[in-house]
Amino acid sequence: MLVMILLLGMGSEARAADGDVDASTLTGKVICGYQGWFNTPGDGAGRGWVHWGRGGMEPGTAAIDLWPDVGEFDPDERFATAFRFPDGSAAEVFSSYNSKTVQRHFRWMREYGIDGVFIQRFATGVNDALFIKHNDRVLANVFAGARDNGRVFGMMYDLSGLRDDQVDLVIADWKHLIDDMKLTANPRYIRDGGKPVVALWGFGFGDGRDPLLGGGGMRLIQMLRNDPVYGGNCVMLGVPTGWRTLDADAVNDPALLKVIESADIVSPWTIGRYATLPQVQEHSANRWAPDLEWCNEHGKKYMPVVFPGFSWHNLMNGKSPLNMIPRQGGRFLWGQFVAAKQAGATMVYQAMFDEVDESTAIFKCTSIVPVAQGGTQFLGYEGLPSDFYLKLVGQGTKLMRGEIQPADERVIEKQKTGKVDSKN
């Protein structure tokens, strides 16, 4: 089997001798974003339809464009929606609250050679009891999935919508995770330079949100780095593409660079910043390469973000075109891996493992989608096998480790072999 050959051939730098991913470094790794934010009625979380739809999961309310392939899932992992496939059968989805489902996701990561995830935790929800109930349950699911499948994980706080004077909410939540869940003591928690990696996403964006440059953001960083009880961490910042030059999507404020200089790893957001392969090359030359030079000069590590495509037609209630940034049969994502490697990157953030809302998911999705109804229509997987992108990201991991060459044009075709996905 191709997948088994790939796993056996992976190098020792980022993988321990027993086959588990080495949790001591980010170097040579591809780490996926893991939203883990999906709920359904009856899943035990008491939240109803969350992230599948806007208050419901029926024509006119769905908020996803890609449809997950749940053909391998057990009956207790599958939740019927109001949508129907062309043959009239019910279209089903899953819940991240279900430990069996998260375990399955981590098993896929192991099978396809994907190192692990940054689990997302949205700062604006940390004072909501149902949010905490769900997210702590998903985090416990991640603990088990990473342990049982030899993967790694880290915490990423998404600070979107948080004001600079609200960072104490995050500090209190971090203390809860350390005191009550022993987060960074977990042997599968990702470390770098001997320290647990904590990612903070959302500094310096110039789109109207608080850029977190008023002092609170810096205080949060310093707590995570220096607090005698809750500190001692390696801090990664998710920042705008234009962070270094203070242009494009970034605020024009030198305070952003001061904040970045206080952290350890820089990870600029790229979703929607380019849409074609020539634009990928241009972005790499104008952004990634000089960003890396700046980071090397300032003693920082650099983790560029890659994504397979983008579409949020249903999330935007039809106001955005379906398939806004086409995947091009994997060529778009692979071109980014190659460009990042050639620019000098040693690690990559893969957006995203399970993000079907904005169609950046790389887990198993189906090309046989539910029938369009009530203005709701879905995006197929271009007729590719449902595991195509799991295979391709596994190859991207090998590329980052230097085990295959960027010029190997056979990579994409090799991933197309295998059983075509089922409809559900």
Average pLDDT figure: 93
At CATH level 3, the topology is TIM Barrel
- What percent of residues are in strands? 5-15%
Report the CATH architecture: Alpha-Beta Barrel
Total number of strands: 12
Residues in helices, as a percent range:
25-40%
How far apart the termini lie comes to 24 Å
N-to-C series of helices and strands: HEEEHEHEHEEHEHEHEEHEHH
Outline the structure in words.
It is built from 10 helices and 12 strands. The strands form 2 sheets. Strands 1, 4, 5, 6, 7, 8, 9, 10, 11 and 12 form a 10-stranded mixed β-sheet that branches. Strands 2-3 form a two-stranded antiparallel ribbon. The chain has 424 residues and is an alpha/beta fold. 53% of the residues are buried. The protein is globular, with a radius of gyration of 20 Å. Helix 2 runs parallel beside helix 3, helix 7 packs parallel to helix 8 and helix 8 packs parallel to helix 9. The N terminus is likely disordered. The chain has one domain: TIM Barrel (Alpha-Beta Barrel).
Short key terms for the protein model shown above:
424 residues; alpha/beta; TIM Barrel; ten-stranded mixed sheet; two-stranded antiparallel ribbon; globular; disordered N terminus
Give the structure's gist in a few sentences.
It contains 10 helices and 12 strands.
Annotate the secondary structure layout.
Elements: H1 2-8, E1 30-34, E2 79-84, E3 90-93, H2 99-112, E4 116-122, H3 129-149, E5 152-158, H4 167-181, E6 191-192, E7 195-201, H5 216-226, E8 234-239, H6 255-261, E9 265-268, H7 277-297, E10 301-302, E11 305-306, H8 331-343, E12 348-350, H9 388-400, H10 411-414
Helix pairs in contact: 2-3, 4-5, 7-8, 8-9
